[in-house]
Amino acid sequence: MIKDLLRRQRIETPSWAYGNSGTRFKVFAQQGVPRDPYEKLADAAQVHAFTGIAPTVALHIPWDRVDDYAALARHARDLGVAVGAINSNVFQDDDYKLGSVTHPDPVVRRKALGHLLECVDIMDATGSDTLKLWFSDGTNYPGQDDIRARQDRLAEALAAVYERLGDDQRFLLEYKLFEPAFYVTDVPDWGTAYAHCLKLGDKAQVVVDTGHHAPGTNIEFIVAFLLREGKLGGFDFNSRFYADDDLMVGAADPFQLFRIMFEVIGGGGYGPHVAFMLDQCHNIEPKVPGQIRSVMNVQEATAKALLVDREALAAAQRAGDVLGANAALMDAYNTDVRPLLGELREEMGLDPDPMAAYARSGYFEKIAAERVGGAQAGWGA
Ligand code: LRH
Ligand code: MN
């Protein structure tokens, strides 16, 4: 029963996690880093090959711009993976200094909307059904711009994108408390994203990036609430100690990840209608193993959450047995699920230890030798 559910798990890795990334202080280049989206897909296919549960790859435009997106999607299929969500990028063009779709100047707003609509064209070409929208839009000083007017502009752009979506397509609106804006962020929290999506309709849902909240935020409450409303479209999984650190999911707070997956499973979110995407940067650690470890962290949290004795939990909750109810969760969380997952991988025809198997595969040595010259992929910021 649990193994069947775990076998059906689907985690999407981000193309940009395979490229160089860093902070404003330094981007440390690494050996063997891809030079183009084709090589990024090859690395992502390795993660799927060793975990068995990472069959799709999110793309980011223009970081993954190619002449022929249908050919790129075919290349993915040849590698045993598929193109997943298409991520727009209206946060790196000089014109967007004061905003993109919320910019005071209608010319800039039209340019930004043009990019969002181009991303839907790319979805048509790659067969993707999901557009992920994150806006860095915001202001740095009180009075810099009109908060309400910017919401009007945002709503106008979202409505235009919504109109363009095909019947089987949707967009996920991502919120973030701050950065790069440091006074107002135009989509700062789940409530703002939810309100905009509610007005538009079923094809508009909210994505929860686990690094985008104020310290101390109870993210699993947001998850439970959005699931109840049918508005949880997906996750950008990562972890953090301080801000949007984009560290490996589960690395900083594995208990939080467990609590989130517990609410996902209890709220009917463990299925294809919720996108479990990773959004991370491996600034100092090797990238393909970093992704494999991250997929395993989500898998372990999911296995533990599936082990919760929900009948015992419900009985304790009904009885007001606070400690009994808490124990039902903690017993599952404190269960070592690694032997179970090792067995599952063997039953899936995989090595029980993906990290060791990848290290033995020689793939890193191969790409380090092959990928010499050319420009390594990165954020191009
Ligand atoms: C913004 C964000 C967004 C992506 C970017 C790579 O912080 O989380 O999801 O577009 O990271
Ligand atoms: Mn994100």
TrEMBL record:
GO terms for molecular function: L-rhamnose isomerase activity. The keyword Cytoplasm does not apply. Keywords: Isomerase, Manganese, Metal-binding. It is an enzyme of class 5 (isomerase). The keyword Manganese applies. Its EC number is 5.3.1.14. InterPro entries: L-rhamnose_isomerase, Rhamnose_iso-rel, Xyl_isomerase-like_sf. It comes from the Bacteria. PANTHER family: L-RHAMNOSE ISOMERASE. This is L-rhamnose isomerase. It comes from Nonomuraea roseola.
